[in-house]
Amino acid sequence: MVRPPSTQSATSSTANSPSPDRSRASHLSNYAVGAVTSPFRLPAGSGSAYTGANRGADGPLKWEMRVKMLISHAEMNGAWARLRPLAEGIYSRVRSAPEKYKKYARHLGSMQRLYGYAYHVGVVEKYAKGAEKVVDWGGQYGHVTLMLREFFGGAVECYLVDCGETEKYWHQVFGGVKIHVPPPHTPIGKLDYDDATVDVVISSGVLEHTYEYGVLDIEALREIYRILKPGGKLFIWNLPAKNGMPELINKVIGRWYHICRYEQDNLLCLLQAAGFNALALDKHEILFPVMRSVMMRILGYWPGFSLEYWLSKVPILSMFSQHFTIVCEKVDGFNFSLPYNGAISDHQGFGRSVVRDVS
User: Does residue 9 surpass a pLDDT of 50?
Assistant: First the structure.
C-alpha cells in the first residue's frame, strides 16, 4: 500500500518542513478504522504507559499509572555507549555542511536530539533481537538507518519513494546507508517487497504523513502487515498526539504543525484494524526540542531526558504530551474481511483524530 514520504519528521515536527496542502486531506473525512470494538481503552490524558504484560486473563487490557520508560537506564547506557561515536560523527558533519543542505537537517545538529533517536533505537534492539531484515520506512537522510546498523548490521535498509538532491547528499556524507528506492512503475500504495519477507519496519515520524501521498494511514499499516513475517515487529515513534503542547502552540502562533494527529484510543483501534497487537505503548515529551536540549546540556543526557519524561506523566501536564511510541507485533492470519463495527475515525477538520463509540 504505502510508499512513504521521502522526508521523515525529525522530532516529528521540523520548522523547515513545508506546509502541507490541506486540500489533499479532504479524503480523510469519516472513514471507518475499527475492525472490531477495541479492547484497548485508556482514560484520556491519563499519561499511562502500556505493555502487553498488562493483559488480563479474561482478555481486556489492564492499564496502570507508571513512570517507566520502555528501556531501563542501564539499557540506555549500553545503547548510547555504542551509538555515541556515530552520533558525534553525524553531528559534526551536519555542523560543517553547506547551508543549502544544513538547513534541512538542523535537527541532526544537536547531540541532545540524537540522544532521543538513540533511545528509540535502543527500544528496537530490546524488542527485535536477531532480526534478519529491518526496513527504515521513509528514512529520509538515513541517520536512523545508520544507528540501527550498529545492532543489526547489513540487515538494515532505508526505504524511500524517491531520492532527491538533498537526500543523496546526506547519504553520501554519512556513508554506509543502504537505500531501497522502488522502480518507477511501482504503484504509490505498494511497498516494493514480497509478502512476509521483513522482520522489522520502523516508522520514525512517517505514518502521519501518508495522507500527503493520497494514502490513508490504515492502508499504509495494512501494507506493512503484508510485508512483515509472522510475528514481525512494527516500531512507531515521533507520532504526534492530538493535544501535544508544541503542536498546539505552533498552531496558535501560525507556525507549521502536523495536520494528522492522534488520540490514544483512535491509535490503538487503528492498529488493531490493521492486524497488529500493541506490545508496548507510551506517550511522552512535552517541551519544545530547544528547551529539552538546554535542559539536557545543564543536567546531562540521561537526567535531562528522564526529567522531561517524568514531567510528561504529571497529571494535567500529561494531557499535553507530544509523541507516541508504540511497539507492535503482527497477528498472523488476521481476518481483514471482518466488517467494521464500533470505531469511527473522525477527521472533520484538520489535526483531529477522534474515536467515538457508535455501538
Answer: no
